[in-house]
Amino acid sequence: MPETDTDLTTLSRSRYAMLRTYRRDGTPVDTPMWFTLSGRTMLLRTKIGPKTRRLQAHSDVEVAICDHRGERVGTFRPGRARLLTGEAAERANTALHRRYGWQYNILPMVRIPGVTSVHRDLPLREKLRRATHRTLWPDSAMVAIEL
Fold this sequence. Notes:
alpha+beta; 7-stranded antiparallel β-sheet; 5 helices; globular
């Protein structure tokens, strides 16, 4: 079913989207993510690791509206993901900073019950450095998903 402009408007109003990637054996892996939309392209940041390897191996993904704990609210929509590099990655990072403000750099490093904060175990000095810099973190990747 093709995505309509109404679907994109509803998606853009949500603060979280469920990203479904696939392991080599086809098993789906769902992750709630912060995102922003640029036209029909969803932009998000993720830590370099298993998810980025899955995206490189299998670029077909699905996205749905969800809450911060990953409770899906909407239906899944297909998309095709690619990792961004260089200036495109920095532009996407800036767009996410605009959307989420101070939370964008702080909340991924804070322990929140029931939420996986992937950078929560960084040393305090590194947390302070990252909290004050607006550039893309060295252990993070920017992803563009064409919807």
